[in-house]
Amino acid sequence: MWLLMHICCAPCDIYPLKKLREENFGIVGFFYNPNIHPYMEYKRREDAARVFSDKSSLDVIFSERYEMESFLQRVAFDVQGRCRYCYEMRLDSTARTAKAKGFDAFTTSLLYSRYQKHDMIREIALAVSERHEIPFYYEDFRVGWKEGVTASREMGLYRQQYCGCIYSEKERYA
After folding, report:
1. Angle between helix 82-100 and helix 118-132 axes, rounded to 10 deg
2. Are 5 and 29 in contact (CB under 8 A)?
């Protein structure tokens, strides 16, 4: 089975990739994260994903769309609902890409982070799956949290200190 896996960042991709390869899935990554702000933070995370892709022999589709303005316009008047929209825009793009490129299903490395809203991600992914008529592969990758953190440090990968959006950056310091 071939999965297109949305990659939120390189450190969060390590354990899911390892686990899925152990289960004999074929994996291609998909880096699409217009929520990340500021732009240089986005570039740092994209660069880290490229480094990890090389180190792990993972083919990755890097979206050329950095639609930060669309993200901000959508969430500016609904800051509390920003995570729902953020998950949906990224998962929707992943599902559309997976369907268009003939993958069997899609998944996301967001399911690795213990800081993400796991139930919300799953709920949205299942709705997106139905809308685009492509299966969503669900697995709770949080069990590999420590292993992934250790591996990312050993590889010297950039480890960001907040989820990505300008609001989560503020919350980091508040």
Report:
1. 40
2. yes
Q: What pLDDT is stored for residue 166 in this prediction? A: 81
pLDDT band at 69 (very low <50, low <70, confident <90, very high): confident
How many domains, the chain?
1
> Is 20 in contact with 121 (CB distance < 8 Å)?
no
The number of helix segments (H) and strand segments (E) in the chain equals 7, 4
- What is the enclosing helix (H) or strand (E) of 5? strand 2-6
Contact (CB, 8 A) for 65 and 34: yes
Length, in residues, of the chain: 174
Residue pair 174/162 in contact by the 8 Å Cβ criterion: no
User: Are the C-beta atoms of 165 and 82 separated by less than 8 Å?
Assistant: yes
- Residue 155 belongs to what domain range? 2-173
pLDDT at 77: 85
**Hey, CA dihedral for 78, 62, 129, 27, is it positive or negative?**
negative
Q: Cα separation of 98 and 159, whole Å?
A: 27
Quote the CA–CA distance of 35 and 54 in Å, as a whole number.
24
Here the CATH number for the domain that contains residue 78 is: 3.40.50.620
What's the rounded mean pLDDT across residues 57-64? 95
